[in-house]
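> run fold Lipoprotein
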Amino acid sequence: MKRVRMLAGALCAGLLAGCGGAGERHDSPPVRAHDFGARTATGTNQWFPLKPGYQSVRLGAVNRGSRRLPHRRVYTVTDVSKVISGVHTVIALDQDFDGGQIGEQALDYLAEDERGNVWYLGSYTEAYEGGRFVNANDGWLDGVKGGKGGIYMPAEPKVGMPPYAQEHAPGDDPTIAKVVKSGVRTCVPFKCYSNVLVIEEGGSENKYFAPGVGGILTEPKSKGGEEETEKLINLTQLSPRGLAELSAEALKLDRHAASTVPDVFGTSQPAARLR
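> ok
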């Protein structure tokens, strides 16, 4: 998957003027700073909580050649913010562990507008081998070199909404998603949930979101290929000390992005912890 292409949404009435039906182009809505508050807003979207310190852990597996490889994904909402296109984003730290070692770390730059829609305004991803940095394999920001953000999670996603562009990173096709089911009961190792929302992403996988929780399950639409799956195994609210440690890691990654992807991050405003 493209690192955080977990979900996007849009509302054709008012928010996404000009979104069309099947076969038509699905553009992201423009990012307008006046649609957001003067400070970072977090925590009101029930489908994707942006509360600093909120952490989910998912157990995953993916096909690599003839092998089925397990991995553990830890997703943490930090208390670190970065201004992108005039919007105060909050950074989520997305970490993949293979065999107990970090294999990949990503920053997701997210923001919640005054309607409660969660926007996806950029990302940065580093790959590691043996715990050592190898390369940055993803880095884009809204408004920089053609990068376009989109809505990550609408405040009120509904079945029947037209397909929408989640984001459009330079050099890639836009990621298209659509709401395919709602009100579903779904069980994962952590718990069984009711009123679950199902999003088809990129035409290849379905992602499940529980109200008040966020993502609980990822599964492929069909057999073949990587067949990536992820199931929620734990949720926690970090202690102040735990949050400080992971926020420090997010700050370090944002600083490193300025040197590894200088044409995108070199002139951006550095991230800082929320006050």
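The longest strand covers residues 67-84.
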